[in-house]
Amino acid sequence: MNAAEPVLPAALAVLSEKHRSRLADFAVAVRFAPGDLVFREDEPATRCWLLHTGCVVLSTVIPGRGTVALETVHGGDILGCSWLGAHPRWQFTAHARTVTDATELDVIALQATATDDPAFTYAVTRALSEMVVARLHSTRARLLDLYAGRSQE
Fold first, then answer.
1. N or C: which terminus of the chain has fewer CB atoms within 10 Å of its end residue's CB?
2. DSSP state of 42
3. CB atoms within 10 A of CB 26
4. Cα separation of 28 and 30, whole Å?
């Protein structure tokens, strides 16, 4: 599952060189094969991934319907945002659909730096949050497309 050296995406270019270098200490390059489990719903959320290539499907089990795919994330997206919540547990299950290369961040270790270097932790969290916001905008656009033209009842 491991790939070569971790690569930080262009979205994190807003970080200073010092912060990018320090963030690399919390990063490892990973590769998921098609079908690999990335994380399972309701387990502790301890990492996040910055996807470079490939795609990962987020799914959940709906009683009476079985497993339902909710979203597919691709290269350039962030995967595993549940660690930002007050109760860091995965909200969905994630499986690689194709060969996927990513940078995995150890967010538990990253959060531990908050006391020692709050400026670093803030800068990284802010940059990652920008990636989350971009994903929310993308989701909103998809929902608008989905419901466009439907009459209101």
1. C
2. T
3. 20
4. 6
Whether the per-residue pLDDT at 1 is higher than 70: the answer is no
| Residues ≥6 apart with Cβ < 8 Å to 113 | 120, 121
Q: Which residue has tokens 């608008």? A: 144
Residue with tokens 């990284």: 124
Q: Which residue has the tokens 């547990």?
A: 89
| Closest among 7, 5, 27, 32 to 100, alpha carbons compared | 32
Q: What backbone phi and psi angles, to 5 degrees, belong to 144? A: -60, -45
Q: What DSSP assignment string belongs to 104-151?
A: EEEHHHHHHHHHH-HHHHHHHHHHHHHHHHHHHHHHHHHHHHHHTTPP
Digit-coded pLDDT (tens) for 40-98: 999 999 999 999 999 999 999 999 999 999 889 999 888 998 888 888 999 999 999 99
Instruction: Give tens-digit pLDDT for 94-134.
Output: 999 999 999 999 988 988 887 888 898 888 888 877 777 77
The whole-angstrom separation of Cα 107 and Cα 130 is 16
Query: What does the alpha-carbon distance between residue 21 and residue 6 come to, in Å, rounded to a whole number?
Result: 11
Tokens describing residue 5: 């050296």
